[in-house]
Predict the structure.
Amino acid sequence: MTDEQSSEGSMEPSDGVDQGGFGEPSSAVSDPTTPNTPTTHAAADVGLPEPVSPFAWAADSGSAPVARKSGSGPRVAVLGVILAAVIGIAFYGLGQSRSGPQADASAKTPSRIGDAASPEPWGVRYNDAPGKPVLAIWEDFQCPYCRDLEAMNGAAIISMADAGDITLVWRPTVFLDESAASLSGPNPKSSTRATMAWGCAIDAGKAAEFHAALFATQAVREGDGWSDQQLLDLASAVGITGDAHTTFDKCYTDKTYQSWVTNSYAAFDAEGVTGTPAGFLDGTELTSSQLSDPATLKQLVGAAGGVTA
């Protein structure tokens, strides 16, 4: 993606983040009071030119990015820029024709994973807060905008979950494995392999720690990803040691959770999610700015019945 875009306020792109296309889901909750503007990362592309967006996103600007795919099921290449006056965004969508991933009902899953019949199929339930709003967040570990969301609001989201204000469900997808940058990079299928490793870390009781570490160690250049050894070493970095580390290593090298990852990706396609990060509060899609701004999200959680004292 291009490294430079200009926008109102002359915002600079965050360090190491390749800035792609931008936009908001058309079904998202309207929030004209939110002062900052989220951006959108383009979805997987094959041999098409990179876009130049008229907007930039700054890591300290209070807005969160979104990596975007076009369509669900078979993808058709789309290139466009749409200016939305109400929330001041630009949209860029770039996809590719392909068959959707196929789910495997017999897939092994890490602990705390919903099955195909759950409200958030194959999602990672960080906690359970009965009677409180459910915040479900779709992410791709190679998505630079997901990394920026983690930096901006990840801690506050975890805090709300730890306080019992929300049930937090992380929903992994891996569509960026199909991007031109990933396919030609040094570590193909990094989104899939990172998510498999995360599943192994979940079993070791390090769901949040490994989740945060993956975004903290995301490659500067989109598509470079992680080597197998880097993912194995990351287990030690988050405190997985001794027998637990041995188990982690075997879990990863045996590709224990590869089918789970595919199932979650299939759900991403089937549900028609258009990009990452994508947040849903009790099933209602949030705008990127609502998801990324701690105060705004806290207010929405309170209105949905969460305790936000």
About this structure: The chain has nine helices and ten strands.
